Amino acid sequence: MLIENKKIAIVGGGMAGLTLARLLQMEGADVQVYERDFSRDVRVQGSTLDLHEGTGLEALKRAGLIDEFYKHYRPTASKLRIVDKDLHIKFDDHDHIAAVAENRPEIDRAPLRDILLNSLNKNTLVWDRHFVSMEKHGEGWILQFKKGQTAYADLVVAADGANSKIRSYLNAPNPIYSGITLVEGNIYDAHKNASKLFEFTKGGKVMAFGDEQFIGYGTKGDGSIMFVASTKAPEHIFAEPGNDVNIKQQVSKWLKDNFSGWSVVWNEFFANENVSFIPRPQYYFPLDQCWNTQSNLTMIGDAAHRMPPFAGEGANVAMQDAFELAACLTNGNFESLEIAISYFEKQMIQRGAEATQDTLENSDRMHSTTALQQMLDFFGEN
Fold first, then answer.
1. pTM of the predicted model as reported, rounded to 2 decimal places
2. Per-residue pLDDT reduced to its tens digit, 103-148
3. What structural domains does the chain harbor?
C-alpha cells in the first residue's frame, strides 16, 4: 500500500477531513487530524445538510456509518415551504406525504460530525491546532501551529475549508467573487427569540424570493435557527467590520436597508437582540483551475473547490473527495503516491467544476427577477 509506514496529516476536522480519516483508518493508515477548534463543542456547526446518493450518502456507506446516520437524521427537515417576500405561501411540502427532497435526507452538522468523530481511533483528532505554515522536511513536511506546536507528516491533506492556508503551497489559483453577498444569522432558543418565524417552518425549511434577493432558513434539532439572506452586492461592503458589536450594528442596518421592501416580519431576524451575524461574500474557484501535482500534498473539499451554497453540493462533493482520495491511496492501482494523487486531482477538479457550474447557474436563478416563478416551476416538476 502506498501509504504504508507513512504519517498522514489531515488539516481540518470538517466533514471532508473526518470522512477521509475514517476511511484511511479502515485500511490501517497512520492518520492525525489537526483542528483549530479548542474542542468538539466549541463552535456553531452551520446549516442542516442534505446528503445525496452517490456522494455524501455513498461516503457514509463506505465508512460503515449509514445506520448511525439514519438514527440521527431529521425527516421533517426536508419539508419545504416556498414563499414570497411577504411570507405568502406559494408551495408547501407539508401538503404532501413525501417531501420533494425526500431522497436527500437531512441531518444537522453537529450530530453528523459526532458520528464521524466517534468512528475514529482514540487521539486521532488533535484539537487546538490552528495551522500557520509548513516547510519541506526531507520527503515530508513540518507543520507549524499558532501556539508553537509542530508536527511531521509524510503526506499532508488540506481539508481546511474555503479560506485554506495550505492551498497556496500548491500554487493553485485565487478565488473569484460571485457578485453575491450573504449574511448568515444564528438564533438560539428560537421558539422564544424568533417565535413567529420559528412556528412558520413547521419543523422544516423556508425559501423566500423577491426583488432579486433570497432568504432561506430552517430549524435545527437543538431548537436554534440558522438563516441566510443574500443579494447582489459589491465585493467589500464588510471589509473592515471591527469588533463584534460593530459587526452586529453594521450588518443589521445593511439587512434592513437592502431588504426594506420585504415584510416587517423578517425583522425578527434582522433586528433581533439574540442574533449573531456572519457576513459571507460568496466566492468560487475558476472552473478551469489547475496546479502541479505533488507527491506529498493535496487538498479536498472547500479548500479545493470553493463555491456558493445555492445548490447544496459543497459538503456532498467534499465527502466524495474523501472516498475518492482514500481509494486512490489504498487500492493498489497506482505505482506511486504522485501518480495516485495526480489521478485523484484530475477527477476531483472536473467534479468540482461541474458542481460549481451548477451552483452558479442556480445562484443566478435564485437572484433573478423571475426567481420565485422559476423555483416554483422547478419544485412543481419534481
1. 0.94
2. 789 999 999 999 999 999 999 999 999 999 999 999 999 999 999 9
3. 7-76+106-175+286-365 (3.50.50.60), 176-284 (3.30.9.30)
